[in-house]
Design a protein that fits this description.
The complex is a heterodimer of chains A (846) and B (225). With 846 residues, chain A is of the alpha+beta class. Chain A is 56% helix and 16% strand. In chain A, α1 crosses α11 and α10 runs antiparallel to α14 (398-420). Chain B contains seven helices and ten strands. Classes of the chains: A alpha+beta (846), B alpha/beta (225).
Chain lengths: 846, 225
């Protein structure tokens, strides 16, 4: 005898469709959960990919040339030889930061002065207003950043003073290759013809000057090979070769990190969708058990009755995946608007096959995987249930449960790994979620146990009934506490993380901390600058001397030897960078001693004891006791690492990788940095005007202004984060609606029966209201509490900062979610009160 | 006449809390092809359990059941399902139509499980036979109790079963509708030669069958016919 009847796959499809079309109302919410989850991931994923592709496509326009050679000092003969051998540069540029003043309105601002030769850029355009300004500036005028023009009320024809020269402004500069918007917000660009740079008189000792040589190449030239050939030679001469390809890679990486974070937020929305599927599907399958028993009575096999619902769920996943992809495509259109000029290229939004496949596979995977466990129940339904109520004894196979659990964990891990590209972080993410799941399950069970154990028998009928509903058979406590708890946890953690990111960027605005930094002060100017500051009634907080130097040898090995050693672990930056070093006899508040001892005095007949930052130590592969020699403008100084410090680079104040003790560098060629504190914007503007007038080479960093710019930039990023977080919240709400909608069937019958027995509508609504308010509060409170714990761990392990939780999640998210659960629960149940008990019972039977 | 159902020394015990509940105790009887057979007895006497065991919906503790010549003990759950699909029809007290399927879709399920072509046409014919041709596309919730039971009858006879098990088929219906359903049941039995096993409280209905047994506390108290 055959083991199975003759109904094939087509019949299964037919049955899945027949049952599905009659249950579409219940399935719609699951499709909605999948759609939103998939939309979140697809939109972020696809946008990140498009951004990367567009950066690669527009890399020449970003650089303005095919490749360039750059150096932070005038090139030596060897580098010049290389430039000549390449046919000479097609255009040159010299750029540096400097204060500019606008004689027309007394305004001053730190700008990036870019002296460029005719021809630049070879790709991309200088967009100016008026358009003709792009040509007229070549004749000895300046193109000033458009935002700066607007800020100072400047127009074409006004003038700008840069050091010793004053130039007419040709027009506003809208875009220029090579200027990034983030940096441009702090020091916006001003373009002048290269030949006017010398006349500014701003190129002096200590000035941070960048020399660039732009090249156009044949289309056939292999730039990667050129980079491989010339890169190491130029490295040795403290110069760099950047091709448009490496520029695109570098820029791509920068946006990749931001993309990764957004992807994670999208993934959280997806996981919330999964929670919705798992909780809703459990209740959905429960409602189908009788039908499954009847099907088995009629001769359907275990596999067939399982597959009917499996197919239904898979189809739901496919529909949700497709809708999600489409919605994600629409959502992407908003990203360029939200991010504004933070993205370096124009991104054309397209719907790619890759996105469709991603959406489909995600929809399918999340629906099937998270429905597998509840679906297993169908396998163990006895056909006897069609005849009478059977005592529930559906022992599911332990192996199958383990396999499904493992599959879910593997899915979450693989997907996080794909998004984050980091094994450890993905593991941390998965273990974190697993812990939250376990803790919430434990809390829900503990809550039910405590309620049963200490049940308030003396309370009134309504309160007792509500509380009993929380632990009776077929209660929804576990499912809802899990759904609400995980949702709230994810939303609150996102909120706290965003807070931490913004907090980390902020400066401490203490009464005596500096809010203005003056840089590039020549030794002979130090006293005069200090006098100017003090004569304005403003204190000089700190005078910091700076000496520039390069590393000559590490542990006795000359840098050139290390450079040619392909096995060396020493970072190239250490070997090539010109360090700005200070000397002092004590540590400052942004530093903490990690190893060794701080030496404030020089010892005779011994190497100079220096202190290095832990970043320098890691990159240079040195530790306490190791010798490091420096080339201080031609003179070799032998030093010994005596201490390693942790430096908080996020503080907006002068910080140093290398600190010498007092008494060594005092006579070396040096320049100074001064910090001061102005109490008003007006005082600050006045001082800046005076300083620019008297000391045009001195650059001024107005920390207050930088902070507000940083806040503006972070605000924009925060917008996108908030937007995605809002999306997660939206999915969370859909999940809640799904879970509550499904769970209401448990309560409707009971409510109608109670009404039949004489309970008033208001009494029933009160019972339901109390039950949902308790569930909402318990889930949301646990979610926020776990988010505080999770964020504290993140603060400690990832951000290395202390975490003071904001009260917003407690004051807004917690009551809002409690209220939402309450409103959804009560709203769903109003039908019980409005209609007659008989009508309700009849409808429920359907 | 060949035996379509043979029950021999059948016992069944359920565990209820911390004690055993002996629901059936050494029950034996036989049903021949085309015969009508009633199982009567008070509530809790084991009628429905016996019906479930005879139809292979549950497994026995002791004894043997031969259904359509197959010893049910030799079959696993899917094997018993296949046997039901090929040889058995069911009518339940509360109709047990699939709520998400229309009347005709309910009727064709057993036919489609057997791989019958043009099942829909046959389904509509069957519905016409029970007087519901115009209700084919209605969902169970849109039908009255009597109409639902007629759909259930059409479904039960769809695959021309050798034996039909009916659990209180008129228990949820008013007298008039109940009588009509009874009549339909016996007409179809005669027309198709299907053996009929009915569990009922209704002694009048039991008297209309060829044979009957009365159960009390899991034991056969009386055999009639």
């Amino acid at each position: 005898m055959d083991k199975e009847n003759k109904a094939g796959f087509l019949w299964l499809l037919k049955m899945a469709w027949r049952d599905g079309k009659a249950s579409y109302g219940k399935l719609l919410l699951f499709v909605f959960s999948i759609t939103l989850g998939v939309a979140a991931v697809v939109s972020v994923q696809s946008f990140s990919r498009l951004l990367k592709e567009n950066i690669a496509q527009q890399s020449k326009e970003l650089l303005g040339a095919d490749f360039l050679i750059e150096s932070d000092k005038p090139v030596n003969e060897k580098v010049q030889g290389i430039i000549d051998s390449l046919g000479g540069a097609d255009a040159r540029e010299i750029n540096f930061l400097s204060m500019a003043s606008f004689p027309g309105n007394e305004g001053t601002k730190l700008l990036e002065v870019r002296g460029v030769e005719t021809g630049f850029p070879f790709y991309g355009d200088l967009e100016t207003e008026p358009t003709a300004a792009v040509n007229s500036f070549r004749k000895g005028e300046a193109l000033v950043d458009a935002t700066t023009m607007l800020q100072f009320g400047l127009k074409a024809g006004d003038s700008i003073k840069l050091g010793a020269i004053t130039l007419p402004i040709a027009g506003a500069l809208e875009t220029v290759p090579g200027s990034t918007s983030v940096f441009g917000a702090i020091a916006p660009p001003v373009l002048i013809p290269l030949e006017y740079i010398d006349a500014t008189g701003l190129i002096q000792t200590g000035s941070r000057i960048d020399y660039k040589y732009y090249f156009q190449s044949d289309e056939n030239q292999d730039l990667e090979m050129l980079n491989d050939e010339l890169g190491p030679i130029l490295d040795a001469e403290q110069a760099d070769l950047d091709t448009h390809l490496s520029e695109a890679r570098r820029m791509g990486r920068r946006y990749e990190n931001f993309g990764k974070f957004l992807n994670l937020v999208g993934f959280i929305a997806l996981l919330l969708g999964c929670v919705g599927i798992a909780s809703g599907m459990g209740i959905y399958v429960q409602m189908k058990l009788k039908s499954i028993a009847v099907l088995k009575c009629l001769g359907a096999s275990k596999k067939q009755s399982y597959l009917i619902f499996f197919i239904q769920i898979a189809c739901m996943g496919i529909v949700g995946g497709l809708l999600g992809t489409l919605f994600g495509y629409l959502l992407q259109q908003l990203f360029p608007v939200l991010l504004g000029d933070l993205i370096p290229v124009e991104v054309g939004i397209t719907l790619s096959l890759q996105s469709i496949l991603l959406g489909l596979s995600l929809g399918l995977a999340m629906s099937v995987l998270f429905a597998l466990y509840p679906l297993m129940k169908t396998l163990y339904v006895s056909p006897l249930e069609a005849l009478r109520v059977v005592q529930e004894n559906r022992s599911r196979s332990k192996l199958a449960i383990t396999a499904v659990g493992f599959g879910i964990v593997l899915f979450v891990f693989s997907f996080s790994f794909w998004l984050l590209g980091n094994f450890q972080r993905s593991l941390f993410f998965v273990v974190g979620l697993l812990l939250v799941y376990l803790i919430l399950t434990g809390i829900a069970n503990l809550f039910m146990w405590l309620l049963k154990k200490f049940f308030p028998h003396s309370w009134g009928f309504i309160a007792r009934q509500s509380l009993k509903n929380l632990f009776r058979p077929q209660n929804q406590t576990l499912v809802l506490v899990l759904a609400i708890g995980i949702g709230t946890f994810l939303i609150s953690t996102l909120y706290f993380t965003k807070d931490m990111l913004l907090e980390k960027a902020a400066i401490e605005d203490r009464a005596n901390s500096a809010n203005m930094i003056l840089m590039d002060i020549q030794t002979q100017q130090v006293d005069a600058v200090a006098k100017t500051i003090e004569s304005s009634g403003i204190p000089v907080i700190d005078k910091i001397p700076i000496v520039t130097m390069r590393v000559e040898s590490i542990k006795g090995r000359p840098v050139n030897e290390i450079r040619s050693d392909s096995t060396s672990q020493v970072n190239r930056w250490i070997l090539n960078h010109e360090f700005r070093v200070t000397y002092r006899d004590s540590m400052i508040n942004s530093e903490r001693l990690l190893h060794g001892e701080w030496v404030s005095n020089v010892e005779k007949n011994a190497d100079i004891p220096i202190s290095i930052s832990n970043d320098f130590a890691n990159m240079a592969k040195v530790t306490v006791g190791d010798p490091v020699a420096f080339n201080v403008q031609g003179r070799i100084m032998n030093t010994e690492v005596r201490s390693i410090r942790e430096v908080d680079w996020s503080r907006l104040q002068p910080n140093f990788s290398i600190v010498f003790p007092a008494g060594v560098l005092e006579n070396a060629p040096q320049f100074g940095v001064m910090t001061t504190r102005t109490n008003s914007d007006e005082g600050s503007a006045k001082l800046q005007q005076q300083l620019v007038r008297e000391f045009p080479n001195v650059s001024i960093l107005d920390l207050k202004r930088i902070l507000s710019l940083l806040e503006e930039i972070l605000g924009k990023i925060g917008w996108v984060i908030n937007f995605m977080a809002f999306f997660s919240i939206f999915v969370g709400v859909a999940v809640l609606m799904g879970a509550i909608y499904s769970s209401k069937h448990q309560r409707v019958k009971q409510g109608a029966l109670l009404r039949t027995l004489g309970a008033k509508g208001a009494q029933i609504l009160k019972m339901i209201a109390i039950e949902y308010a308790i569930l909402g509060f318990l889930g949301a409170f646990m979610g926020v509490l776990l988010a505080v714990l999770g964020s504290s761990l993140l603060a400690w392990m990832l951000f290395e900062t202390t975490f003071a939780p904001s009260s917003i999640p407690f004051l807004i998210i917690l009551p809002a979610i409690t209220l939402l659960v309450f409103a959804l629960g009560v709203g769903n149940s109003i039908g019980i009160v409005r209609n007659s008990p008989l009508a309700v019972l009849k409808k429920e039977k359907e | 006449m060949s035996k379509i159902l043979k029950v021999e020394n059948l016992s069944k015990t359920y565990r209820s809390g911390d004690h055993d509940l002996h629901v059936l105790n050494k029950v034996s009887f036989e049903v021949n092809s085309g015969e009508t057979f009633a199982i009567v007895g008070p509530s809790g006497s084991g009628k429905t359990t016996l019906l479930g065991l005879c139809a292979g919906l549950d497994t026995t503790d002791e004894g043997a059941i031969w259904l359509c010549g197959q010893n049910l003990v030799d079959l696993d759950e899917d094997g018993r399902a296949l046997l039901r699909n090929q040889n058995v029809g069911f009518v339940f007290q509360d109709f047990q139509l699939l709520p998400t399927l229309t009347a005709v879709e309910n009727v064709v399920v057993p036919l489609e499980l057997r791989g019958v072509k043009k099942a829909m046409d046959q389904g509509k014919e069957l519905l016409a036979k029970v007087g519901l041709a115009d209700r084919a596309s209605h969902y169970p919730s849109q039908l009255s109790g009597g109409e639902q039971q007629r759909v259930a009858l059409a479904r039960a006879f769809a695959n021309q079963p050798s034996i039909l098990f009916a659990d209180e088929p008129t228990g949820n219906l008013d007298d008039e509708t109940g009588t009509k359903i009874e009549q339909l049941l016996f007409d179809l039995n005669k027309e198709q030669g299907t053996a009929l096993v009915i569990v009922t409280h209704d002694l009048e209905l039991a008297q209309k069958t060829d044979k009957s047994i009365r159960l009390r506390s899991g034991k056969i108290e009386e055999t009639i016919g």
